[in-house]
Amino acid sequence: MDVLQEHQRALDDFVARVGAIPPDQWTVARAPGHWSAAQELAHVTLTYEIFASELSGGPGMRIAVPVVRRTILRWLVLPYVLWTGRFPGRPRAPRETRPPENGSREEWLGRLRIATETVSASLATALRDRSRIRLSHAYFGKLTLREGLRLVTVHTRHHARKLSER
User: Fold this and answer.
1) Burial state string for 61-99 with b = 16 or more CB within 10 A and e = fewer than 16
2) pLDDT tens, position by position, 94-140
3) How far is CA 153 from CA 10, 21, 32, 149, in A?
4) Burial letters for 124-137: b for 16+ Cβ neighbours within 10 Å, e otherwise?
5) Is there a contact between 145 and 26 (Cβ–Cβ < 8 Å)?
């Protein structure tokens, strides 16, 4: 399957799972210390907004770890995540993507739709033109376009699974 199709499937699955959350469970954390469905959606939306910003020439994610740690994470953890499609442990969300306590499903879905439309259009052009765009990640540093797309796909699937754990 092509990387854009794989990404779109993950996104469609995530949005479908968001829609399946009953209104009375929208702001309820799935367990103590975990996020609510509202926060899961906000976090994924904020991630796509940063991705869209960087693809459009704006700022990307701020690098949050020193170069030595980033190099270790890039060479040991990133290949694991990209290969298995899973994140080890419970990594802390980068500051820019930490969600507010709650929010309207409609508002966050609208923002997600706008961000993902920007991402999809930019990705299609960049992949077709074999662009050498590099994307920033707080813990892994600069990623190739394909690494960034695969990582956001894995990330979206990860949060779709979290929505189903309720």
Assistant:
1) bebeeeeeebeebbeebbeebbeeeeeeeeeebbebbeb
2) 999 999 877 799 999 999 999 999 998 888 788 777 778 889 999 99
3) 6, 21, 26, 6
4) eebbeeeeebebbb
5) no
Three-state DSSP string of the chain: CCHHHHHHHHHHHHHHHHHCCCHHHCCCECCCCCCEHHHHHHHHHHHHHHHHHHHCCCCCCCCCCCHHHHHHHHHHHHHHHHHHCCCCCCCCCCHHHCCCCCCCHHHHHHHHHHHHHHHHHHHHHHHHCCCCCEEEECCCEEEEHHHHHHHHHHHHHHHHHHHHCC
Tokens read off for 159: 């949060």
Beta-bridge mates of residue 29:
36
Whether the CB-CB separation of 163 and 21 falls below 8 Å is answered with: yes
pLDDT of residue 1: 57
**Which residues have a Cβ under 8 Å from the Cβ of 121 and sit 6 or more positions away?**
none
